[in-house]
Amino acid sequence: MKRRPDLRLWTARLLIAIVAAWNLECAAAFLRQPQAFAPAFELSGVPGAAAVRGTAVLFVMWNIPYLVALWHPRRQRVSLGEALAMQAVGLLGEGLILAHLPEAHALLRASLWRFILFDAAGLVLLTAACLLACLNSTSEEPWSASASTATTATPN
Fold it and tell me: What pLDDT shows up at residue 146?
């Protein structure tokens, strides 16, 4: 019997890939032209460029669980869960930063709003990916016995 591609699995991969691509594209832009983004954080000069490049490195580093989950969202549910949690923490943290930022910092507030919108969209996509990958997928549960690891009792 020919195996059909699992539409839910491939849709989950697509959703994860979109979020990972957004993260990596942002990192690449921050690495290529940090001076273009530094003013949005009320930074300038060499320190501003270094801070923006540092943020780019963090984006790449934080993306590792997303890429592992992308490989196989069902088998790599822990990584998918980590990516989902990281996305939620980022969104919550950005909201808290925004809440404590004085109104006088309009440019910085606008930058935070862009990150909030970006992370909110990512959270929605990753939640959908998690639901698609994890619901009704008992055949690939890492904690259940599979055909290759199940032991069969043999009479003595």
Answer: 37
Q: How many residues does the chain have?
A: 156
- Gap between the Cα atoms of 31 and 63, Å rounded: 15
The token duo for 155 is 């009479």
Residue partners of 13: CB distance under 8 A and separation at least 6: 70, 73, 129
**DSSP helix/strand/coil, 147:** coil
| pTM of the complete model | 0.81
The vertex-95 CA angle with 32 and 27, nearest 5°, equals 15
Could you give the maximum distance between any two Cα atoms of the chain, in Å? 81
Average pLDDT (10-29) is: 96
Rounded Cα distance, 143 and 34, in Å? 44
DSSP annotation string for 71-85: H-TTTTHHHHHHHHH
Decide: 39 and 28 in contact? Cβ < 8 Å: no
- pLDDT per residue as tens digits for the range 124-133: 999 999 999 9
Query: Is 9 within 8 Å of 73 (Cβ atoms)?
Result: yes
- The C-alpha angle with vertex 59 and arms to 20 and 82, in degrees rounded to 5, equals 65
Nearest to 68 by CA among 57, 83, 53, 58: 83
The first and second tokens of residue 91, run together, are: 């969104």
